[in-house]
Amino acid sequence: MQLPAPESGQILVKTTESVMTITLNRPDKLNALTGAMYRDLVDLLALAEEHDDVGAVLIEGQGKSFCAGNDLGDFLAAGNAGANATEGGAAPFIRAVSRFEKPLVVAVQGNAVGVGVTMLLHADIVVAADDAKFITPFVDLGAVPEAGSSKLLPAWLGYQRAARMLLAGEPLGAEEALQCGLVAKVVGRSELEGAARAYAVALAAKPRRAMRESKRLMRQAPEMALHDLIDHDLALFAELLRGDEAKAILAAKLGKK
């Protein structure tokens, strides 16, 4: 697979062991995302979705912090031009990451701010360093929560804890994020890259259609009545069991016995 040259010059990308690793590489600005960086991210997620040799995506950030959110200069410029600030920048990325069908792992160190937090709500595994802080200062910027965070954060964290983040703008530390389910694992800073990559490699190695359909079921389940979900997952279970993927796996396991 030929990887495109990122437009921004501030995104690094490589694919090894069926994992596309996307690195935010603007450490002098704490990886604040510009319009060009958002476009690169959208293009790379689309590329990963299209290619069978990519089984999972890992997003990480260079430097002391994962992501400082949207570049404030871009917001101001869009507002002064009378444009919709999010439609020109974050919106396509938010839509892309929320609809991404393959496994998505994110490694977070230092500060994750704004969209640096809300993108995590659409990841499958988030690994945080023990110095990570999660900050959503939307109200303080005269804006509102985005990326579905006004629904997802109260559902995951409870209303009071979500209000501390979304309304009061209080940071959430790594250990509390682990306790409330915002992240899957907390490790030392030196272990972060290896721990996140281990998850990405493991997910990429699993049966592709089973992984994609399982992720879709998990995302659809909260919106479905339980009986409808049971009927749906039983039908899908039977369909996949008849498929070549499951047949090959079961035949190999029986052969070993």
TrEMBL record:
Source organism (scientific name): Alloalcanivorax marinus
Domain of life according to the entry: Bacteria
Localization in the cell: Peroxisome
Keyword set includes Transport: no
Name of this chain's protein: Enoyl-CoA hydratase/isomerase family protein
Transmembrane segment boundaries: none
Keywords, alphabetical: Isomerase, Peroxisome
GO molecular function, a single term: delta(3)-delta(2)-enoyl-CoA isomerase activity
Keyword Isomerase carried by entry: yes
InterPro entries: ClpP/crotonase-like_dom_sf, ECH/Chromodomain_protein, Enoyl-CoA_hydra/iso
